[in-house]
Amino acid sequence: MDEINLLWHQLTDSETIIRSGLMVITLIVFAENGLFFAFFLPGDYLLFLTGVFGGTGVLKEPLSSLLLSIFLAAVIGSFVGYLVGRFFGKSLMNRPDGWFFKKKHLESTREFFDKYGFMALVISRFLPIVRTFTPILAGISHLSWYKFILLNLVGGALWVGILVTAGFYLGQNFPGIINYVQYIILFFLAVTTFTVVKGYLKLRK
């Protein structure tokens, strides 16, 4: 049990992930952006804190390398999710609920997709859980390859560009911010919780 708790902490603790290096960061981003069983992994605040750690010099890679690596991980991750939905959508829809899969996540994403249409692929980048399931649902709906690839690139560029760049320049100009990592995480969690609860209440209504 202790080993499981330790593994869970390492997978969900952004600071631990970032200090492990860019390779681990990109793997987490890849998984969280399209693998249905990885929806619980950190997303928004992982990107922002990666920028902060890059700006303060904890991560040695230049901003361009951070942006390119994370962008590719996000885009490829979503594309894998799209392929899973397109070719295995029926079996996924018939899959019983388990520890890492809940049909309610897919259904709430469908509501989001119906509301925003194709732009859901861009907007969902900034919403946890929905971000993971939107490309899968796009695949299930057989959204054209051209539209998916275009919106995937646009959404990935905006998501990674805004969060990583903002964190980088904040860390560069205010290096002391690295001492307040826990407050940054709490802020993002508060925003995330508010967004998810608001969407849940709308869905119930």
TrEMBL record:
Keywords: Cell membrane, Membrane, Transmembrane, Transmembrane helix. Belongs to the DedA family. InterPro entries: DedA-like, VTT_dom. It is a multi-pass membrane protein. The chain crosses the membrane at residues 21-43, 63-85, 149-171, 177-201. The keyword Acetylation does not apply. GO terms for cellular component: plasma membrane. Residues 41-167 form the VTT domain. Signal peptide: none annotated. This is DedA family protein.
